């Protein structure tokens, strides 16, 4: 199990801005990471009501599965808890709605006794690289017949993350606003 404080800022992009950033960082030399995020909750969104986001991320080229729960903190960051799981555990979660044994299951069972179900999934094609003491990710996301582009920067803290994003977009002369709608929320709302 791994816990970390996620100090991440996100900006939704249009296709031209995506292309500008792709070219600025010369990302044709950066490996492309393909991953699928599977989002879970109860039928009544009990986890979301308790400010928990639960997902499994399948990184396709590595064929790894990571169970993650994110809990927002007062400073705007997220506490992110990750557990590597096996394909068999993932399959049981999808087919039988049973979380694998571990810290995440124990924490969720403290406030939830309802069945966990798969709500939706989202495919991300990502370019990820270190930048200004943080980690930058340029994403193309596909979900429920829709798609979008997004830039994420995880910094040392939230102020650092906001500063780096603002400085980059000023340099590239791109108008932007920070995104407050997560991939999870966009994917879930698109299926309704």
Can you tell me about this structure?
- Strand 7 and strand 8 form a beta hairpin.
- The chain is α+β, with helices and mostly antiparallel strands and 192 residues long.
- The protein has helices at residues 15-24, 46-49, 87-96, 103-109, 158-172, 183-190; strands at 2-6, 8-13, 32-41, 53-59, 64-72, 78-85, 117-131, 134-143, 146-154.
- The two termini are 34 Å apart.
- The protein is built from six helices and nine strands.
- The model has no long low-confidence stretch (mean pLDDT 94).
- The protein is globular.
- The chain has a nine-stranded antiparallel beta sheet, with helices on both faces.
Count the DSSP helices. 6
Strand order of the largest sheet: 1-6-5-4-3-7-8-9-2
How many strands, which pairing sense, and closed or not: the largest β-sheet?
9 strands, antiparallel
- If you compute it from the alpha carbons, what radius of gyration comes out, rounded to the nearest whole angstrom? 17 Å
Distance between the termini: 34 Å
* Classification by helices and strands: alpha+beta
Mean pLDDT: 94
Name the beta content range.
35-45%
- Helices and strands, in order, run as EEHEHEEEHHEEEHH
> What is the number of E strands?
9
- Low-pLDDT segments: none
| Dominant shape | globular
Notable characteristics:
single chain; 192 residues; alpha+beta; nine-stranded antiparallel β-sheet; 6 helices; 9 strands; globular
Concise summary:
The protein is α+β, with helices and mostly antiparallel strands.
List the helices and strands and how they pair.
Blueprint: E1 2-6, E2 8-13, H1 15-24, E3 32-41, H2 46-49, E4 53-59, E5 64-72, E6 78-85, H3 87-96, H4 103-109, E7 117-131, E8 134-143, E9 146-154, H5 158-172, H6 183-190
Antiparallel strand pairs: 1-6, 2-9, 3-4, 3-7, 4-5, 5-6, 7-8, 8-9
């Amino acid at each position: 199990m791994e816990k970390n404080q996620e100090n991440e800022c996100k900006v939704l992009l249009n296709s031209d801005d995506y292309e500008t950033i792709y070219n600025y960082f010369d990302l044709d030399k950066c490996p492309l990471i393909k991953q699928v995020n599977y989002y879970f909750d109860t039928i009544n969104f009990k986890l979301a009501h308790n400010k928990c986001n639960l997902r499994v991320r399948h990184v396709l080229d590595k064929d790894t599965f990571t169970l993650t729960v994110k809990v927002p903190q007062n400073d705007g960051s997220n506490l992110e808890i990750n557990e590597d799981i096996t394909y068999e555990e993932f399959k049981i979660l999808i087919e039988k709605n049973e979380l694998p044994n571990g810290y995440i299951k124990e924490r969720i069972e403290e406030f939830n006794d309802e069945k966990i179900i798969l709500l939706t999934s989202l495919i991300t094609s990502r370019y990820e690289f270190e930048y200004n003491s943080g980690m930058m990710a340029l994403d193309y996301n596909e979900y429920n017949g829709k798609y979008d582009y997004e830039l994420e920067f995880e910094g040392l803290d939230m102020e650092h993350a906001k500063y780096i994003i603002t400085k980059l977009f000023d340099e590239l002369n791109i108008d932007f606003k920070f995104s407050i709608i997560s991939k999870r929320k966009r994917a879930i709302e698109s299926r309704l």
